[in-house]
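We treat protein structure as text, and this decision shapes the records that our systems exchange. The remainder of this section carries one protein's record, kept here as part of the documentation:
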Amino acid sequence: MSPGAGKSAATLDRFFIEIGPENTASIEAVSMDMGAAFSKSVRTNAPDAVICIDPFHVVQLGTNALEVVRRDQWQRARALPDQSFAKKYKGHRFALLKNPGTLTEKQSATLDHLREDGGTLWRGYLLKESLREIFAGDLSSAEVMAMIQDWCDAASDSGLGPFMKAGATLRGHINGIHAAVSRGLSNGKHEGLNNKIRTMTRRSYGFHSPEAALALIMLACGPVEVRLPYQK
């Protein structure tokens, strides 16, 4: 099966066409993010398959919400006469978004200062981390779902627009999240492959077409065996 360019429903439709109706009928569950396009294609082509919302993208929703809060604080600070505040918020980015176990000494010190100051950024950080921690432990599916419901309540009550939106989004996908958690499905291996592909495309300084990028991806990551003329 060859990869396709784009993230539209038509891209995934081509995948189902390529594997054929017999193989499509055997699909029991599909793990994906919360985008509407792929969900539409799965419901059309494999209506009996259960849609599972990947936990990685659930956690990413909280991380993205925190980044929106940080950028908003930075934009507000940029309007002040003293630009040192804007530089401070811009410098907080990696300390806020990285997992605590991967922080440098300087980033840990930055978080300590944020904890002492409290305020909007620290509240957002606690929401982001509490969502990540739900999937970091060895919890039962019932415990995970109960904690996600509690997180959605906390996000709705936070007064932080991006987190309120994130909570509403998770509520809208709660069945898909439960399906992924109860089945133990995730896109972890695929996200690792995506990181490899992103590194590869950065080193290539871009491509003239999606086909060129896909050809290199198949060559580097796919089942493609290259035999030089002198090899037997």
